[in-house]
Amino acid sequence: MNTLLDVLTGVCLVVGAMMSLAAAIGLLRFPDLMSRMHAATKPQVLGLLLMLAAVGLQMRSWALLPLLLVAWLFQLLTVPVSAHMVGRAGYRTKHRRPEMLSVDELDDVVAAVVEGESPDS
Questions:
Q1: Model pTM?
Q2: In a domain, 70, yes or no
Q3: DSSP string, 12-69
């Protein structure tokens, strides 16, 4: 039984590390802000989940489970919020590539705010 848990722990660690590495490579290699935001959020959260699962499997303590869940939930809740804020800041400061967007729904709203109008009118 210990060898099975050790193998599962190793698999979780390796796959989690590969997901985190994929996120890092995506941050360095992707061409624009929107692609980089995606690379920073999706694989990183899954990589952390797998790393925490490996810690839980290796430690074999039920007392550790709430701490691991809280750590993952905080990551799960804060990563999309931070990516959203980075995206908003990048959009407003023109760090985007409009030719890569299929639909730009914010263009009219931002233009109206810049002109001092209400975006709803």
A1: 0.75
A2: yes
A3: HHHHHHHHHHHHHHHHHH-SSHHHHHHHHHHHHHHHHHHHHHHHHHHH--GGGHHHHH
